[in-house]
């Protein structure tokens, strides 16, 4: 269920508040300390020379602390304490440095001494509260707030922080008594009622917990969020009807409360009433005050794969509502992209993603998704153009260079691939798998530029960097077989690939072809027939290779049938046409 964001919980905020105070303390006391050095130097036996040395060192210590030279500052402040061991300001500054370094134990000892020497300085006590909390000494922290109440009796927050810390220390009954005292002074207020309610829940007294919120509602009958507190309690106790009753009271006060509409929608979803749930969800999503994050949380819960609670039609409707309600936010449209991609509607997904990028060009994930969609669509020209734009924003991202190389490879722009690889590889930081991808495309470019020796040298680096880059290993083995070079290595590489990928038709084809080149035609036939049985579509290339093998096994009639079938499947090879015309095998040679 989506919780009401306005709930007041001292047990949660107490740690945050102490951090805020400690930040304020650091700045304020530092400035005060400089102006009160002479007063703070309490040793009456200090000579005038000693007093001046103390003041100089203290100011120098503050300077080093401000510059972030903490160790040097500690040394200087330690020298100050050698001159005057009763300087509470020096103890405080040293403690502050230890807090910055995360040493809460050392800072605690220093602050305890500082507060003993100067018990009226509230900033020392405030920092000590934080240190006690970090050391999980909640009872001591609570006692510090009791001291602070005496130092600053006009601060209304200190008693509440003390009560929250008392609860954390296990003194729930004492905290309850403190809340009752505060209630006698201040009347029924949200902080007191909620504080008491939480204690009663922890004590197992649910009737009293309900009573506290009901009193709060009686005192403030038009404040909608208090009915939300009560509804949440009923929901936690699985009294769904009472919860719904209070949610509906909120809507009478504020019909546009988006949180409540989501809560009611959740109620109806749990009751399997999707019609009513959807109506409330739409009202919540149309609410422009309710933040997108909360709506997205609800949306993602409803469309969770395997347990979707709404139809595709309703899902699209909600996405359009989100887009309209948050017209200047790209994230609702990004959710639409998710929806379209999940349904393989890549063209429409790309259209929506480009609108997203028009709004948020500095988001790397969006650019990466666009390039991957281009890859899925086999749109190499868009891959080329979009990768160029992406690099303008993210020139340090290696994957963009890799995807750009993919597009260039498909467009046969081999020389440009080499330039792209040289520019991108400098951004790879000791990641062998990423380096392997860069070298793979460099090797492909070299091979297609007929620079075979350079290609094979780079492929060797690929194998060394990533022995499981099966695509590269397969291509390397195939290229070696086409060149009739290092056939032993080619067979070894290909065997490793199909051992890891026994159902991959392309890899099986390579293995069969290596045996064909080695003139082991029976093994070639076995693996080629396996490849054809694993192929999800009739590959024209595999069929041609099968015909070649059959020809050398003297099954020429079937070889001719396979060659003609390859042409029917769209094989454009001129050499294949020549094979058929001349009824003989003609080797394809690499120059």
General description of the model:
- The protein has 591 residues and is mainly α.
- Among the domains are: 171-254, Tetratricopeptide repeat domain (Serine Threonine Protein Phosphatase 5, Tetratricopeptide repeat, Alpha Horseshoe); 467-582, Alpha Horseshoe (Serine Threonine Protein Phosphatase 5, Tetratricopeptide repeat), CATH 1.25.40.
- It contains 33 helices and no strands.
- Helix 16 (274-286) packs parallel to helix 18 (312-325) and helix 29 (505-517) runs antiparallel to helix 30.
- The two termini are 69 Å apart.
- Mean pLDDT is 89; it is low at 1-39.
Itemize the secondary structure elements and their pairings:
Layout: H1 10-35, H2 37-40, H3 48-66, H4 70-83, H5 88-100, H6 104-117, H7 122-134, H8 138-151, H9 158-168, H10 172-186, H11 190-203, H12 206-219, H13 224-236, H14 240-253, H15 258-270, H16 274-286, H17 292-302, H18 312-325, H19 331-342, H20 346-359, H21 364-376, H22 380-393, H23 398-410, H24 414-424, H25 432-448, H26 452-465, H27 470-483, H28 487-500, H29 505-517, H30 521-534, H31 540-552, H32 556-568, H33 574-582
Helix pairs in contact: 1-5, 1-7, 3-4, 4-5, 5-6, 6-7, 7-8, 8-9, 9-10, 9-11, 10-11, 11-12, 12-13, 13-14, 14-15, 15-16, 16-18, 18-19, 19-20, 20-21, 21-22, 21-23, 22-23, 23-24, 23-25, 24-25, 25-26, 26-27, 27-28, 27-29, 28-29, 29-30, 30-31, 31-32, 32-33
């Amino acid at each position: 269920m989506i919780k009401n964001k306005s709930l007041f919980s001292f047990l949660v905020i107490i740690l945050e508040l102490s951090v805020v105070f400690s930040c304020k303390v650091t700045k304020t006391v530092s400035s005060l300390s400089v102006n009160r050095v002479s007063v703070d130097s309490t040793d009456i036996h200090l000579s005038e020379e000693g007093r001046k040395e103390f003041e100089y060192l203290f100011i120098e210590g503050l300077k080093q602390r401000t510059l972030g030279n903490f160790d040097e500052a500690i040394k200087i402040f330690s020298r100050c304490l050698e001159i005057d061991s009763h300087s509470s300001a020096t103890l405080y500054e040293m403690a502050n440095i230890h807090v910055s370094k995360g040493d809460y134990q050392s800072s605690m000892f220093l602050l305890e001494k500082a507060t003993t020497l100067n018990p009226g300085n509230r900033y020392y006590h405030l920092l000590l509260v934080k240190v006690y909390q970090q050391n999980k000494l909640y009872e001591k922290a609570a006692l510090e707030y009791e001291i602070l109440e005496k130092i600053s009796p006009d601060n209304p927050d200190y008693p509440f922080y003390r009560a929250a810390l008392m609860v954390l220390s296990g003194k729930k009954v004492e905290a309850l008594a403190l809340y009752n005292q505060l209630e006698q002074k201040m009347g029924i207020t949200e902080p007191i009622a909620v504080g008491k309610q939480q204690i009663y829940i922890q004590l197992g007294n649910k009737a009293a917990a309900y009573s506290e919120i009901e009193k709060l509602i009686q005192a403030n009958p038009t404040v909608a969020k208090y009915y939300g507190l009560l509804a949440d309690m009923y929901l936690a106790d699985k009294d769904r009807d009472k919860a719904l009753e209070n949610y509906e009271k909120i809507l009478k006060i504020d019909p546009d409360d988006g949180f409540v509409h989501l809560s009611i929608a959740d109620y109806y979803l749990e009751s399997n009433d999707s019609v009513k749930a959807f109506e409330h969800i739409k009202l919540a999503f149309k609410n422009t005050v309710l933040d997108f994050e909360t709506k997205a949380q609800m949306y993602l819960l409803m469309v969770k794969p395997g347990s979707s609670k709404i139809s595709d039609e309703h899902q699209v409707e909600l996405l359009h509502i989100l887009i309209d309600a948050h017209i200047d936010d790209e994230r609702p449209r990004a959710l639409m992209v998710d929806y379209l991609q999940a349904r393989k509607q890549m063209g429409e997904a790309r259209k929506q993603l480009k609108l997203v990028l028009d709004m948020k060009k500095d988001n790397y994930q969006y650019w990466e998704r666009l390039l991957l969609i281009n890859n899925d669509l086999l749109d190499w020209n868009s891959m080329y153009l979009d990768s160029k734009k992406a690099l303008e924003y993210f020139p340090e991202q290696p994957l963009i260079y890799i995807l750009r190389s993919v597009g260039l490879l498909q467009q046969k722009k081999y020389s440009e691939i080499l330039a792209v690889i040289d520019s991108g590889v400098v951004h790879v930081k000791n990641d062998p798998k990423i380096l392997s991808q860069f070298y793979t495309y460099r090797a492909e470019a070299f091979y297609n530029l007929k620079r075979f020796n350079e290609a094979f040298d780079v492929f060797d680096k690929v194998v060394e960097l990533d022995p499981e880059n099966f695509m590269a290993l397969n291509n390397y083995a195939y290229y070696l077989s086409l060149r009739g070079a290092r056939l032993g290595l080619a067979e070894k590489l290909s065997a490793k690939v199909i051992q890891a990928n026994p159902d991959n038709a392309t890899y099986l084809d390579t293995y069969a072809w290596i045996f064909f080149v080695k003139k082991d035609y029976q093994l070639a036939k076995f693996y080629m027939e396996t490849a054809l049985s694993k192929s999800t579509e009739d590959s024209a290339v595999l069929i041609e290779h099968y015909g070649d093998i059959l020809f050398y096994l003297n099954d020429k009639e079937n070889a001719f049938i396979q060659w003609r079938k390859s042409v029917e499947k769209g094989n454009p090879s001129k050499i294949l046409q020549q094979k058929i015309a001349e009824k003989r095998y003609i080797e394809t040679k690499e120059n």
